[in-house]
Design brief:
This protein folds into 2 domains: about 170 residues, no CATH class; about 90 residues, no CATH class. The chain contains 13 helices and no strands. The N terminus is likely disordered.
Length: about 350
């Protein structure tokens, strides 16, 4: 005879690592210690725009000017698209949907009115009530995709691509992975957010891949360079949620590339002290021009439109650094031309 069958039980399927679940974050935070939090905070800080911008200048003026232009382009386009997607998706962060998630980066206690309101299945979004509450919050900070991960992917992946180095590729993969883990550990992002950031950064790099090896085809046309310089401004005027700083930086970068390409991009075998001096000149130009442009815009009251003021200020600053930095360095004989 058959053994009696056990009565059927109702089981709710829960994937081990759903894209918008807070349990993986809570697990990482259960390992928290002072040194680990300090380390993860430092890793996250290294992916901020000001740090990556400084690294772009180091590459452009200290290592290879064309590679620096490519990296600046990749980071700025990634920032612009990431900001747009964040506002369009308007999805909450883990600390918004689960009061158990620690806000470890800011040190402020989590006062979210929800607990375990993340996704249940693998592809489930967070609880609609939590999402709606965040969207109604003034100046809400949305999570998807992760800007820290997307820009880290664009910069470090672009560095490995530009220099075609397997060692840089391995190092870049490690940095991007640790950056993603830091965003999870600090409670700032879901797994979906960091995965989306990696995909977005990789997509931008894919679109710029040829320029890491030789000039893109549109730079051989007299029409396309001015169009590319104006495109970020058109996007700012036409599309919602475009970051004016990223748009201005792209316009300034493209104009600098147009003028520098016309004079031949500098290729050199300069000594270490010359490279360090060039980086110092670029950073000094950035600080001086950013302060001067800000003062000028306030004086002539253009900042009645804050977005346009930020666009113009960033465009002028980036252009002056990338074009003026080369000109000043050449006048001071800090470039040693290849024979």
């Amino acid at each position: 005879m058959c053994r009696p069958c056990a009565p059927p039980t109702t089981r709710t399927h829960r994937s081990a690592f759903p894209l918008f679940q807070t349990e993986p974050i809570l697990f990482l935070q259960s390992l928290a210690s002072d040194w680990l939090t300090a380390l993860m905070s430092a890793v996250t800080r290294a992916a901020y725009p000001d740090v990556l911008g400084a690294l772009v200048l180091v590459v452009a003026f200290g290592v290879n000017y064309r590679a620096g232009l490519i990296l600046g382009q990749a980071v700025l386009w990634t920032e612009l698209v990431t900001g747009l997607l964040k506002e369009l998706a308007a999805l909450p962060r883990p600390s918004d949907v689960d009061s158990r998630v620690g806000t470890m980066l800011g040190g402020v206690p989590n006062g979210a009115p929800f607990t375990a309101a993340g996704g249940k299945g693998f592809f489930d979004l967070p609880d609609p009530r939590a999402t709606a509450a965040v969207r109604l919050t003034p100046n809400a900070s949305f999570g998807f995709p992760s800007s820290a991960v997307s820009t880290a992917t664009a910069f470090w992946g672009g560095t490995a691509l530009a220099f075609r180095s397997s060692r840089l590729l391995a190092m870049s993969g490690a940095i991007i992975t640790v950056t993603a883990l830091s965003r999870l550990y600090l409670g700032r992002h879901f797994i979906a957010d960091v995965a989306g950031g990696m995909v977005l950064g990789g997509a931008v790099l894919g679109s710029l891949r040829r320029s890491a090896v030789k000039p893109m085809w549109y730079f051989r046309s007299p029409l396309w360079p001015p169009v590319l310089a104006l495109l970020p401004l058109v996007a700012l005027l036409v599309l919602p949620h475009i970051d004016p700083g990223s748009a201005g930086g792209l316009s300034g970068l493209y104009v600098a590339r147009i003028l520098t390409d016309g004079r031949r991009l500098p290729a050199d075998r300069a000594r270490l002290w010359q490279r360090i001096a060039r980086v110092g000149i670029a950073i000094a130009l950035y600080v001086a021009v950013a302060a001067s442009v800000g003062l000028l815009l306030r004086t002539v009251a253009i900042d009645a439109d804050p977005a346009m003021a930020e666009y113009l200020g960033t465009a002028v600053t980036v252009f002056t650094v990338f074009w003026g930095g080369v000109r000043v360095s050449e006048l001071l004989h800090l470039y040693r031309r290849l024979a």
